[in-house]
Design brief:
This protein is mainly alpha-helical. Helices cover 74% and strands 1% of the residues. The longest helix has 37 residues.
C-alpha cells in the first residue's frame, strides 16, 4: 500500500512537469512538495528504530548528492547573473557579430555562438542571450522560427561536452561514470550535428540582414570578473584531471575570489555588492532539481528503480540509450537521468558517453522536451508545438548523426 502511494506521488510529480503550461503551477513547487511528502511518508511508515535509521542514512546520502549539485549550479549561476547584469554577455555578442551579414552566414554564426555559449553557461541563459541576439536583426517570421529551432538544438548540444553546460552531464560526471577528459570528446559530434542542421536550414536562406549597435558601458572590474569566470572553468577541468579535485570545490574557490575582488574594487556608489548577485540566481530551477532528486531517491529506497534497470538492460545499451534520448523529448531529462543513475546499470565508458549525448540532445526533438524549447516558445510567438513538428525530421537526422559519431569516436578512444 505504501509503495503504491509513493509511486503515485512520483507519477503526480511527472504530470505536474508535463502539464506546467496548462496548470500554470511552477514545477519547482509541485516537485518539491511531493518529494518532501514522499520522505515524510517513509519515516512515518518505518515503524521500528532500526528501519528509521536506514531511512535516515538513505536520506543523508541523497541530500549529499543534492548539495553537491546545488552548490556547483549556484556558483556558475552567480557568475552568469553578474556578467549578464553588467551587460558583458551582450558586449561579447556585439564584438562577435558584424552589423551587416548574409542570412545564411548569420545562421551558421548563431549556431556556433549558441553551441559555445551553452557549454559555459546554463541552458536558460544561453537560450535567452541567443534569442535576444535575433531581435537585433530584422528577420521574417519563417526565418526567425527556423533560427529559434536551431538555437534550441545548438544550446542542448553545446551543454553535453562540459559539466558547466548541462545538468544531466554534471549528474553523470558527479556519479563517477565519466571523466572530464572523456566528456570533451562529445564536443566534436555536438558541433558536427549542429553545423549539419545549420546547413540544412540555410539551404533556402537568401538575402542580407543588418543590426543597429547598442552602446554598453562597462568597468575594468567587470572584465576582471569575466576573466575569473573563464579561468575558473579551465582550472576546474585541469585540477580534476590532474589531482581529482571535485569541480564543486574549484568553482566555490573561484566564486570566493570573485567576491573578494568585487569587494576590494567596489566604489561607494555601487548599490549592489557582488555577493548579492546570488539573489539573482534562478532558485526555482534549483528547487526543481531538489524536488526531483528527492523523489528519485525515494524510488531507489522502495526498489522501483530496480525494475527500470531490468527494462533498460533487456536491450543493447547503445539501443537503450538512443531511445532514452528520444524519451527525454517527452519526459524531463533530469528525472530520467537521475532514475538511471540510481538504478546504476553496468555500462562501459563508451555507453555512458552515448547516454550523456542522448539525454542532453534528445530533448530537442520536441519543443516541450527541454527548458530551452519552453523558453523559445514563450519568447518567439511564431514558434508553437505544432509549427515545431515540421522540423522534427531534420532534427532527428542530426540527432542520429551526432549519436552515431559519439559512439564511433568514443569507441576509437576507449574501444
Amino acid at each position: 500500500m505504501l509503495h503504491t502511494f509513493l509511486i503515485l506521488l512520483a507519477v503526480l510529480a511527472l504530470l505536474s512537469i508535463v502539464l506546467e503550461e496548462v496548470t500554470h503551477i511552477n514545477k519547482a513547487k509541485t516537485t518539491l512538495f511531493l518529494g518532501c511528502i514522499a520522505w515524510v511518508s517513509l519515516f512515518i511508515a518505518s515503524g521500528d528504530p532500526e528501519q528509521t535509521k536506514i531511512v535516515a542514512e538513505e536520506l543523508n546520502e541523497n541530500l549529499l548528492e543534492i548539495a553537491t549539485l546545488w552548490l556547483f549550479l549556484m556558483s556558475t549561476m552567480t557568475f552568469v547573473a553578474y556578467l549578464n547584469a553588467k551587460g558583458m554577455i551582450q558586449i561579447m555578442v556585439q564584438k562577435l557579430f558584424p552589423q551587416r551579414v548574409s542570412v545564411r552566414m548569420l545562421m551558421i554564426q548563431v549556431a556556433m555562438f549558441s553551441l559555445f555559449l551553452s557549454a559555459i553557461c546554463d541552458n536558460v541563459t544561453a537560450t535567452l542571450v541567443s534569442l535576444g541576439l535575433l531581435t537585433t536583426f530584422k528577420l521574417d517570421k519563417q526565418m526567425r522560427r527556423r533560427m529559434a529551432v536551431l538555437i534550441i538544438f545548438a544550446v542542448n548540444s553545446g551543454g553535453v561536452a562540459l559539466i558547466t553546460g548541462d545538468v544531466t552531464t554534471l549528474m553523470i560526471f558527479l556519479a563517477g561514470k565519466v571523466h572530464i577528459s572523456d566528456l570533451l570528446v562529445l564536443f566534436v559530434p555536438a558541433a558536427v550535428s549542429v553545423m549539419l542542421l545549420a546547413v540544412l536550414f540555410s539551404l533556402k536562406a537568401e538575402g542580407e540582414v543588418k543590426t543597429t549597435p547598442i552602446k554598453q558601458q562597462y568597468r575594468t572590474i567587470d572584465v576582471v570578473i569575466a576573466g575569473i569566470f573563464f579561468l575558473t572553468i579551465v582550472m576546474t577541468m585541469a585540477l580534476n584531471v590532474f589531482f581529482s579535485i571535485p569541480p564543486v570545490l574549484t568553482f566555490l574557490t573561484g566564486l570566493s575570489v570573485m567576491f573578494l575582488v568585487g569587494h576590494m574594487s567596489r566604489p561607494d556608489k555601487e548599490e549592489t555588492q557582488v555577493l548579492e548577485y546570488i539573489r539573482q540566481v534562478e532558485f526555482d530551477t534549483l528547487l526543481f532539481f531538489l524536488g526531483i532528486l528527492l523523489l528519485v531517491g525515494m524510488l531507489k529506497v522502495i526498489g522501483t528503480l530496480d525494475l527500470l534497470a531490468q527494462v533498460y538492460s533487456m536491450y543493447d545499451p547503445n539501443i537503450s540509450n538512443f531511445f532514452t534520448g528520444m524519451g527525454s523529448a517527452l519526459l524531463d531529462n533530469v528525472p530520467l537521468t537521475a532514475a538511471l543513475l540510481k538504478a546504476d546499470p553496468v555500462l562501459t565508458t563508451v555507453e555512458w558517453l552515448g547516454l550523456t549525448y542522448s539525454v542532453g540532445v534528445g530533448g530537442s526533438l520536441l519543443v516541450i522536451g527541454s527548458a530551452s524549447g519552453i523558453i523559445a516558445m514563450s519568447k518567439v510567438k511564431e514558434l508553437t508545438f505544432v509549427s515545431y513538428l515540421k522540423y522534427v525530421p531534420a532534427l532527428m537526422l542530426c540527432y542520429c548523426v551526432g549519436y552515431a559519431l559519439t559512439l564511433f569516436m568514443a569507441q576509437q578512444i576507449h574501444g
